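Dear colleague,

As promised, here are the two records you asked about, laid out in our usual form so they can be pasted straight into your sheet.

NAME FIELD: protein one
SEQUENCE, THEN STRUCTURE:
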Amino acid sequence: MHSVRVALPYHLRNLARVEGEVTLEVASPVTVRRILDALEARYPVLAGTIRDHDTQQRRPFLRFFACEEDLSLDSPDDALPAAVAEGREPLLVIGAIAGG
């Protein structure tokens, strides 16, 4: 098991009633899917907020970043960088801003 850090946007931290980063235990290989599974298991109120209940696809206005890379369009089953798996860097869940 890996101790992984996740940084959530304000509205999701507020919904889950957490402050700062969340630390989760995730099995190898550490992937976005496994992190989200662990996050939703620990904070059931977040189920459906980051990814669709049925399709499991990322919500359009959320992005995933790690180690200064945008991972939003990568497969959720791709292994994340070692720095994330080792807890040195967080997986960032960022709320995108749209408007005109």
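NAME FIELD: protein two
SEQUENCE, THEN STRUCTURE:
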Amino acid sequence: METNNYQRLGATSNAHVGSEFEAAAQIFFETVGLRLTRDFVAPVGFKVKKAKKFDLGSSSPPILVECKSYTWTISGKSPSAKIRSLNEAMLLFSVSPPEYRKILFVLKNLHPRTGLSLAKHYIKNQGHLIGPRVEIWEFDLEEKRGERIF
């Protein structure tokens, strides 16, 4: 059997992992009184606007959510491609309508040696890219508990 170094261990596919995480996020937000729609479309852009599909969202109240079910690499190194994807989410939030509450909803995943979560690692190293009105939440998938960390 061939292995894929970029595939989550035990998962059918990374797309499947992401979809399941989005569903868990939607349920979590419902428990705190926010009814969000999957694949919510909002305009993004500076002068020219383009429709962008966010993982979750609502127009009333105005909320945009990007969900990231990312983990540290098996060797414990910073996952550079995933960090770039988080930066892309920050760019999209920065060019989305200002009236929207913006939430980056990240899987709580701890470094195997240091115990630092991947989301806190991102804030520590890329915090200068986190714009106004952007919240970062960590979600413990096993405990079904979310916590705002930024």
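A couple of things worth noting about protein two: The chain has a mean pLDDT of 91. The two ends are 42 Å apart (CA to CA).

Best,
R.
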